[in-house]
What we know:
Blueprint: H1 10-22, H2 24-30, H3 33-45, H4 50-80, H5 85-112, H6 122-132
Helix pairs in contact: 1-3, 1-4, 1-5, 2-3, 3-4, 4-5, 4-6
Amino acid sequence: xxPTGGGMSAQDERTWSMLSHLSVLLSLVTGIGGPIAALxxxxxxxDRSQRVAFHALQSLWxxxxxxxxxxxxxxVSTVLTVVIIGILMFFLLPLIALIPIVHQCYAAYKVxxxxxxxxxxxxxxxxRERRFA
Length: 133
């Protein structure tokens, strides 16, 4: 369980944690705005609330990981167009791009309900960094 921050109400923590996950929606409009918004939320709230900081970092690293995955997928698809299967892979790209958006909207919903939603691997990575910081 993530301890609550000192000066923030539980409602404010839930709201800012939810917004950090919903920042992924900015990427639909701006392309890269989601990770930047999550980073800004983390920078502003990292000293005020461990919960908000945790969820903002989760959101940031989750979005960065998916950007890398989608970038690698596009590279592989481009290379495989030589053997035709790559063309078919490009049709799957919009569906693959929806995965992080849907997952983060679900995380935002759970966080707003008061559940400390944790992304696999990423949450453990953040916890490990906090222990050594």
